[in-house]
Amino acid sequence: MTKRSPTTRPRPAPRAATAALAGGALLLTAACGGGGGGDGEVTLTIDTFGVMGYEALIERFEEEHGIQVEERNVTDVADYTPQLQQNIASGSGAGDVVAIEEANIAQFMLQKEAFVDLAEHGAADLEENFLDWKWDQGTAPDGRIVGLGTDIGGLGMCYDTELFAEAGLPTDREEVGELWPTWDEYAATGEEFTEADTGAAFMSTIQPLFRVVTAQAGGEPFQNTEGDLVIEDTPSTREAYDTVTGMSGLSAALPIWSEEWNAAIQDNAFATMPCPAWMLGHIENTAGEAGEGRWDVAAVPGGGGNWGGSFLAVPAQSEHPEEAAALAEFLTSPEGQLSAWEEANTLPSSPEALESAEVTEFTRPYFNDAPVGAIFGATAMELEPVYYGPDTQAVDDAFRAALESVEQGQATADEGWDTAVSGSERAAG
Amino acid sequence: MTAASRAPQDARRGTDRAARLRAALDTKAAPYAFIAPFFLLFGVFGLFPLLYTAWVSLHDWSLIGGNEGFIGLENYRVLLGDAKFWNALLNTLGIFAIAVVPQLLAALLLADGLNRIVRGRGLFQIALIIPYVTSIAAMAIVFSTLFGTEYGMVNQVLGVFGIDPVNWRGGRLSSWAAIAVMVDWRWTGYNTLIYLAAMQAVPKDLYEAAALDGASALRRFWRITVPMMRPTILFTVIISTIGQMQLFTEPAVFDTGGAMAGGTQGQYQTVMMLVFQEAFRYGDYGYGSAVSWVLFLVIVVLGLINVLLTGRIKGAS
Fold it and tell me: Most buried among A72, A218, A313, B151, by the most CB within 10 A?
């Protein structure tokens, strides 16, 4: 049919309307994505990262309170924290209870009004449930209780018994611990290990050691409580840097958490690694069955220390602050922390839980039945409190890059220091 | 003509007018209505963020503090003296140069080869486009593993030839090369198919005439194929420029650690990585916005240079 008649021709108006409608419909669908239905029952969401060990606890809480709890877990804290920051800043999207990592707590402390003061929900009486420094980290100077401590990162030094035997070093964890009461002696052991020429490096990277050594010194390694950078005013920070960069020659120079680093764990390419409690699970999962019995845990050089650990907080944007606070208090109670310890080996921040037989007598079969509860618990008790300022993330990034450039031979230790300091100033200034 | 017969005529004239109006609406308004959804969405997700970013860039604006006041061009002043920005721009341009130039040349040659193949061309075309349809992040993860220092396959192969392991992430050129390989892996096939389509549109009689005149295959390629494809080549150059100046995923995945630092000394931190680092890692939205606006301007300038250069070449030939 070539002739077009007005009757068969579609009318223009509906056509235009359809097009406009289609556009509108698209926008509508986009707008409706965020909504949620309420059926009268209270449902709490809890945002967590890594492995918190809360499965059994959440089930118990649900039974006892008749409240549904949904756990939203992100594996990597580096992905988790920026998202949480945005949800807190924008005032919506965060869970009713959120986990906050130690390195980020100060940054959220700056926005303490965005969080429920847990003291209003009975948390003020719970101080004795936590190690002093852990309690202080979660409490604002004005007494507002922002975060309740969950786990801590008590330290041990993991070592590969087969590589140690090959290098003619002792393999018994007591004797190994006696090799290195100080970091200098640890470095000397490293020299001895390297001379034995096993083909493996003494350590994977110096970067995590810096975190450990600065933490052991305590105080304010990077920023003071006013938020000023004090890196160059704190002698212990430069000392830690020098101690650590002095060991560059003992390192395999593999960036932590990289694919290469994981491959090196499987390949037994390095002999020691500072091990916070939560690192054991990573070694076990990465090295797999082949690594069972190879790794053991000894005392860490330099005495106590802590690397990581978290807090639970209730954002003020929560619609159920009362119930959310109850959940946070339940999960961080000594019994709650013990349950998490049993489920995921996250070291409790509660002295009562730390001293309980469940922790002190706990051994980990994968690590030659090492009494990891006792080893980690001891370092946590003797810890110097550390203050991590609001720009810790940026400072940590700057030092990490600098330390890696030194151990990979791209910069001297002095050049690395200057880069790290100027990088920190740039980010924090 | 009587009054009685006039009335229906008027009525008919009325419907005629309505029909004409409808027809006018149909041709004039309908096209706008059809493209409206795109522009609505572009307005919401393209233009508004663009303008809002410009607004944010004129403020001291952080994630935690929010808008902390108008500071005019202060962010831009800081940016001009910021070694990290210039380093990122150098990296972006460097990776662009060593990735895009070989990529487009290879695409041109591949397209020419495909144009000659008669049997199984479809199969080759599919093979070429497969890298483009794979997930960019998955591809970058695989390549990052290949370029590992200790356990990477590339170094193992180099070892067979007695070459010492290369710390791909450690050096500026080595990291650029590794990232350029990822970029080319993904985009060469895509550009090849575009070139192939353009090549097939070149009239065959031109080749026949040239062949009769005794022009060699190489001469025909450079003297007929390439000039006839100039608009297409310009298109791919501009698209590649826009895409490569915003290079992000490949170097970000290649990086170890997630700080968006682009290596221990920023060897391969691109401008987009710097934007991400400033805005989303350190929460400095004002500065991050300023960097992204300067990047936008750089892309516009590069696009204009492209057009200008191509115009020159056209004028000269």
Answer: A313
